[in-house]
Amino acid sequence: MSDTILATQDLTKEFKGFTAVDKVNLQVQRGHIHALIGPNGAGKTTCFNLLTKFLVPTRGTITFNGVDITHEKSAQIARKGVIRSFQISAVFPHLTLLENVRIALQRQLGTQYHFWKSDKSLSQLNDRALQLLGEVGLRDLADEVTVNLPYGRKRALEIATTLAMEPELMLLDEPTQGMGHEDVDRVTELIKEVSKGRTILMVEHNMKVISTIADRISVLQRGAILAEGNYEEVSQDPRVMEAYMGTTDGQLQGAH
């Protein structure tokens, strides 16, 4: 049990008779990068929304560190350390990178949203904010206004604001979507770097990213788990090849 940080049992979500997530049994091991993949419409996003409590399951249970969180609200599980990046951690475009990370750090002080406080009262957070920007390769841009950043760097900043909330489990929702090759490579390396000492569950379409960093992969099809294993096992599974494109694994490996 101690090695499993997040588990679901028969997790199911129905919408007016349509089953979007069908009896999913997921086990995420502590310290791993676990990828959730599948063709469009497979139920990945719905599954993520169930895990982060933006949707209520029709049936089944979710446990985090052995505690049943099935009926808790999203804010409650965020306080427990389950943080979904690119959603809770949206950045403010007209603030600097340093200011964005500092606002995220205010959650730790219990002073979030106290925008009337003077900058001086928040200066204690500067060192930690700069350290987090350093972790994602953005320290030199601390005083840059966020709106001026290229897309890939904005994603890196979003990861920094997520880290500021001290997640025990980070959920990354398609972190490389819409990126060019250079940004994909940079963000892939960044995820690998920030995963040290943390657990990551990610939805990702880019198979090159998955093959590079995922310790374990769960493949969803029509809301149910079709296959699980490491990249080599999953990419050679005939059911997975067929689910993606009905042809060869060579195409699967290049698929987005």
UniProtKB/TrEMBL annotation:
Superkingdom to which the source organism belongs: Bacteria
Annotated ranges, domain ABC transporter: 6-247
Parts of the chain that traverse the membrane: none
Pfam families associated with the record: ABC_tran, BCA_ABC_TP_C
CDD domains, alphabetized: ABC_Mj1267_LivG_branched
One annotated GO molecular function: ATP hydrolysis activity
SMART domains: AAA (SM00382)
Gene Ontology cellular component list: plasma membrane
Keywords: ATP-binding, Cell membrane, Membrane, Nucleotide-binding, Transport
PANTHER family membership: ABC TRANSPORTER ATP-BINDING PROTEIN, CONSERVED COMPONENT OF ABC TRANSPORTER FOR NATURAL AMINO ACIDS-RELATED
Record protein name field: ABC transporter ATP-binding protein
Annotated source species: Lampropedia puyangensis
